Amino acid sequence: MSTKSPEITLSIQWRSPEELKELVKQERPMKVLIMGMPRSGTMSLVTALKQLGYTLYDFIDRIILGHLPLWTEALRAKFLGQGKQWGKAELDRVVKGFDCVFDVPCPFFTEEFLSAYPDSVVMLNKRDPEPWLASMNSTLFRVFNWPSWPSSLSSTPSSQAFGIPTKYLDHYDYVRRVTPKERLLEYEVREGWEPLCRFLGKEIPEGDFPNVNDKDNFVKGHGMLWAYAVFNAAKNVAMGTASIGVGAAAWWFYRVR
Question: What are the b/e assignments for 186-216, b being 16+ CB within 10 Å?
């Protein structure tokens, strides 16, 4: 186990539309599926994976590439039985050019990813339910309670119903149940580089494992989306609704599992 490194603050760095257009033309085999819940050391982990050379499919990439309506269709098909269930063809459509996925709604499609990409492995990043819920309440659930989000989330129930630690544990049981043991690493970021690199077959980099505090930037980043959503709502443009709606919808659809 490595010594805990000094805490750093994550800067908001998004790929430009031009960069993404070039990226999705490339062929990359899917390698790593991060299937833990948000606020479970995720940003420290993805920062480490970027350092190891992986190309990650981030939530903001889904927004810029216009994938959120597609993911909403996938959620409705899986959890409500409305429409076609997703398979490899549908997943290829959204993750081409990337070799690592994380963040909602991807973890709710663990079975589909495992079946579509049999050479991939699953990282189940985790933390205790109580600190996880406290972190969610100070970030994601806080964002959902901002003014004007309710109108954008008119098709989803109140975010107050999401914070149930039992559902958090249920998700981890689901991932363990559907993932072959040889393809699964249960991981906490406090464990550092050694178990991560051993599992991925990578050499341990020089330097400390990233210790990223992204809470403030999480709220700042969603503040940008909030302003965009309110602006577009006035113009009756759907993009703002989709950008936060798919996140809220992912949580709600999973609750009716």
Answer: bbbbeebbeebeeebeeeeeeeebbbbebbe
Cα 107 to Cα 57: distance, rounded to the nearest angstrom: 12
Beta bridge partners of 186: 124
CA angle 238, 243, 248 (to 5 degrees): 115
SS3 per-residue string spanning the chain: CCCCCCCEECCCCCCCHHHHHHHCCCCCCCCEEECCCCCCCHHHHHHHHHHCCCCEECHHHHHHCCCHHHHHHHHHHHHHCCCCCCCHHHHHHHHCCCCEECCCCHHHHHHHHHHHCCCCEEEEECCCHHHHHHHHHHCHHHHHCCCCHHHHCCCCCCHHHCCCHHHHHHHHHHHHHHCCHHHEEEECHHHCHHHHHHHHCCCCCCCCCCCEECHHHHHHHHHHHHHHHHHHHHCCCCHHHHHHHHHHHHHHHHHCC
pTM for the full predicted model? 0.76
What's the chain's Rg over C-alpha atoms?
Answer: 18
The angle at the Cα of 119, spanning 117 to 125, to the nearest 5 degrees, equals: 85
Q: What is the pLDDT of residues 153-208, one digit of tens each?
A: 434 333 344 445 677 788 899 999 999 999 999 999 999 999 999 999 999 999 99
pLDDT at 244 over 50: no
Predicted local confidence at residue 56, as pLDDT? 96
What pLDDT does 132 receive? 64
Q: How far is CA 159 from the centre of its chain?
A: 18
**Average pLDDT of the residues in 227-250:** 43
